[in-house]
Write a structure and sequence with these properties.
3-stranded antiparallel sheet, 39% strand, two-stranded antiparallel sheet, mainly beta
Length: 76
Amino acid sequence: EKVETIFKPMSVDIKFHDVNGKNYRCAIPKLNKEIVPDKCKVVVKPTKVVVTLCKASKGNWLDLYFKEDKVLNVLN
C-alpha cells in the first residue's frame, strides 16, 4: 500500500507515499521509552491516520520523545 511503517524498540518511522502526488514522513528517532514493535500498528482512515504504540513496560510517558535529564547535563 502507500504506507510504509517501521517500528523498532526505541523508534518509529512512518512514510506515506503518493498522497495527492506528495510523499510525507513522520519519524520519532528516539522514543521516551521502549515499545513492543510487533504490537504497534497504523490504521489509515479516510480523514485521519491512527498510530498505536504498545509500551514495553507500565507507567506514564510525559512525552513521546526522549529527553536527557537536564540536571545530569549540568553535573557532567
